[in-house]
Amino acid sequence: MSQMTISSRIGRVSAPASGSRARARAVDAAPATANNGFRLLCVFLVALTFTAVLLLNTVRAEGSYVLSNLEVEATALHDQKVTLADELAGKESSDSLAKAATKLKMVPSTSTATLRLSDGSITGVASKVDGSRTLTVDLPSTGTAPAKDD
Fold first, then answer.
1. Which of 4, 113, 124, 150 shows the smallest number of beta carbons within 10 Å?
2. What average pLDDT does this structure show over 139-147?
3. Residue 136 CB partners (closer than 8 Å, separation 6+)
4. What CA–CA distance (Å, rounded) separates 87 from 80?
5. Quick check: 16 and 22 in contact, CB under 8 A?
6. Dihedral sign, Cα of residue 37, residue 43, residue 44, residue 49
7. Cβ atoms of residues 93 and 101 within 8 Å
8. 3-state secondary structure string, the chain?
9. Residue 106 class from Cβ within 10 Å (0-12 exposed, 13-18 middle, 19+ buried)?
10. How far is Cα 68 from Cα 62, in angstroms, rounded to an integer?
11. Whole-angstrom Cα distance, residue 118 to residue 116?
């Protein structure tokens, strides 16, 4: 049914028996008292939701910023590690060590002796290297040089 039909039926209220005309009165469907507490609760919940979303987005953005900085730092540290590993590999190569020893006027040894630390025994026989250079070591505990035996 359309509203026109309903309003026309409502308008046809039968007249009272006494002959006086009945007055039509408008009735409001809303309650007479305003429910401001419910409205305030709804506004508070909406404001609370917006605040929570804002805070979560801010924390997420901050975390993303920190993560980005840490990734940049990790990349820089990885590059430094690779560079240092390459430098170390170059310095510990036999050619590099031989050049450094030559700069220090060292000569290759013809025989070697090793010291076993567990029992203090010496394995092998070390012989004097041919060369005119002698080496004097100053002992730090006494401050005097040992006697030369040529």
1. 150
2. 57
3. 145, 146, 148
4. 10
5. yes
6. positive
7. no
8. CCHHHHHHHHHCCCCCCCCCCCCCCCCCCCCCCCCHHHHHHHHHHHHHHHHHHHHHHHHHHHHHHHHHHHHHHHHHHHHHHHHHHHHHHHHCCHHHHHHHHHHCCCCCCCCCCEECCCCCCEECCCCCCCCCCCCCCCCCCCCCCCCCCC
9. middle
10. 10
11. 6
Q: Which segment of 35-39, 74-78, 138-142 scores lowest on mean pLDDT?
A: 138-142
- Token digits for 95? 């050619």
* 127 Cβ contact partners less than 8 Å away, ≥ 6 residues apart: 110, 111
| Length in residues, the chain | 150
**Residue carrying the six token digits 């080496």:** 135
